[in-house]
Amino acid sequence: MERGAFVKRIRDELVGGDPDGSTCEARPCVAPAAPLFGRSVEELQTVFLARQEELGVKATAVATRRQAQTAVGQLLDERHWSVVCSPDLSWPNIEERRTEHTAAADFGLVQARWAIAESGTIVVDTADGERRATSLLPPAVGFTLPRSGLVARLGDLLRQLVQNRGPLPACITMITGPSASADIAGVRTLGVHGPGEVHVWIIENE
Amino acid sequence: MAALAERQRAAHLAEIEQALGDPVLQQTIRTRQDNRCALQQQAIAELPDWPDWKEAVADLRGHTLAHLDRYMEQFADNLERRGGRIFFAADAAEACDYVVRLAHAKEASLIVKAKSMLSEEICLNPALAAAGVQAIETDLGEFIIQLAHERPFHILGPASHKTLEQICELFRGLTPEYLPPEPQALAAFARRYLREKFLSAEIGITGCNFAVASEGAIVLVTNEGNGRLCSTLPPTHVVLMGIERLVPDLSGLEPLLTVLPRSANGLRATTYTQIISGPRRSNREDGPRELHVVVVDNGRSRILGTTYRPILHCIRCGACLDNCPVYRNIGGHAYGAVYSGPIGAVLTPLLEGIDSSAHLPFASSLCGACNDVCSARIPLTDLLLDLRRDVVAQRLSGRGWELGMRSFAEITRHPDLWRAAVRLARLALKPWVREGFIRRGLGPLRRWTAGRDFPAVPPRSFRTLWRRDTDAT
Fold first, then answer.
1. CB-based contacts of A168: which residues, under 8 Å, 6+ apart?
2. Which residues of chain B have a CB within 8 Å of the CB of A162?
3. A60-73: per-residue pLDDT in tens?
């Protein structure tokens, strides 16, 4: 159906059913905001780490980026894993384990910019040049996250998206724990399509 | 019209009979309902201001629908500005036709699909199959029912009626390898089996939980990751969206994404929430090259102009199914429609026309549990009652039924007539009483007892007992 006719069909029904007509202005949505926890960065980190544990994510706080590098290198060595990551990432200690073949990689390494403490959600966006498949195809995935990127709740993230940028990037993905399903007999299974194992390193001095 | 209603009603009763007579199914429904309710209650208890969140959702949905024409225009402009394409489908046929033509244009032989109730509603898979295009469902639950050739049993857990053994049996048909009846092993098999499909499909189809007018963006809320795969790997991503999915701007996502995962799965957030704004940008390495959004009306705009508009507030959390005593007993298939439970009992007659689903408004005890848990505070039982009035007004309930109801109304208005009728019924119905109930009545009573057990008339009526007891004191 042609756009004009389609919208007109809607408009005609509204005039019939809505005494206010279409004169009312858009208004921002006001969400309730009873505080659930303190908003200091330490408290946000505590909540976030607790959520990761509940979700079955292995999350650790490290002081510096160098320590995160070491931790990732150790994990890859222990598991004999190949790793796929952004071409921009140049960590010498993972160089020899690197692969460009995302669908065959054991581990995807992603630099996240934000996270939501309340739900334990990592936020990845394509504006950072990160490939979408890195956090999706491998059976295990790891995120580094600057502590300064922690926000308390979803609303804080949405407000940041509105304030910080012009148009949205092509895809913002919010990731909360491992890929999960209860479709087989109501039993929680992990790694159905996305990664079943998730690691997070919070970098405190970043 | 009344004949169609009658046929549908008979099929509905037969399905109910079947569900009630299946002890395994009965147990499965109860367990799943109890588990889901427990998770939901736990998640809800964490938010001290839960009722306010639901109020915010209801308020937002009401506002958006009241100005849907404007938000639709805004959404279309912004989507196109970001490089997305939009198609407006007046009905199911137009929507299916667009997707089929697109599949042909892309020379697609395989389409991967994420869960979309709208695609079930418009019967997209049969349309694609008729055009020689294979569409494979990748949500684990949808994948299972596609293998079983069944309709969704629940709007969120389409295969929630299937036992482990039944699922194992279905999967064994796909592979010569041995599959143990163990959930994690079956999930791992599905991952391997479907991964190949994702990597080779030319088109990915998803639904749309919400669409943000100010950004021209699509919001997808999923748990398994198949929605992400469908919207990332194939070169073309098709989104099926009902007209009512819009929200004005990003701020609206706060109440929606706070309430939906808690009401749906008892989660603070679903595993994956994507905000998709156009196809991949030119300097990026992955993501679809084309994004097509098919906006589907299919009877929705007609509801807007009526007193049934609040049903379009629904955000498909499924909480009304999980808390419904009728669903608990008859399950999803007995509703005979794509949408089941209280939401289905209201939505189906409104979308498909009341003459083909006149029985559905009666598939409720009107207990109101659905109203209490509804994420968008839809007064479901009020709408069910209004629909019942419509059924009667349009004379779809059948001649015998109407006559019976009119006689009943007449009798209850005249005490002498009532007394006489009770006395007569006590004697006349006696031969049909089995264990205190009449299960197969005669004449006008037959319609009543087809769906209910009629209690035998007791030897002494309430009025007799009342008179005796008050006289004694």
1. A161, B215, B217, B275, B277
2. 249-251
3. 999 999 999 999 99
Q: Which of residues 286-345 of B touch A (CB under 8 A)?
A: 286-287, 295, 297, 301-302, 304-307, 309
Q: Which residue of A has its CA nearest to B188?
A: A192
Q: Is the Cβ of B70 closer than 8 Å to some Cβ of chain A?
A: yes
List of domains in chain B: 2-12+302-393 (1.10.1060.10), 47-298 (3.40.50.10420), 399-472 (no CATH)
Instruction: Count how many domains chain A has.
Output: 1
Closest CA to B330 of B153, B152, B117: B153
Each residue's pLDDT tens digit, B292-342:
999 999 999 999 999 999 999 999 999 999 999 999 999 999 999 999 999
- Enter the DSSP assignment of A182: -
Residues 30-59 of B with CB under 8 A from A: 31-32, 35, 46-49, 52-53, 56, 59
- Which A-chain residues 38-97 have CB contacts (< 8 A) with chain B? 51
- Kindly state the helix (H) or strand (E) to which residue A46 belongs, with its residue range: helix A41-55
- Dig out the tokens for A41 from the structure: 């960065």
For B138, which residue in chain A has the nearest alpha carbon?
A193
Domain presence at residue A136? yes
Residue A201 — pLDDT band, cuts 50, 70, 90? very high
Under DSSP, the state recorded for A134 is: G
Q: Is residue A85 part of a domain?
A: yes
Q: What pTM does this model have? A: 0.94
Q: Is A141 part of a structural domain of the chain?
A: yes
For B60-66, what is the mean pLDDT?
Answer: 95
**Three-state SS at A120:** coil
CATH of the domain at A113: 3.40.50.10420
Domain that holds residue A97: 37-203
Q: Does residue A181 form part of some domain?
A: yes
A67-71, A199-203, B392-396, B431-435: which has the minimum mean pLDDT? B431-435
Q: Across the interface, which of B231, B269, B280 has its CB nearest the CB of A119?
A: B269
Greatest alpha-carbon span in chain B = 93
Average pLDDT over residues A104-124: 96
Provide CB contacts within 8 A for B101, sequence distance 6+: none
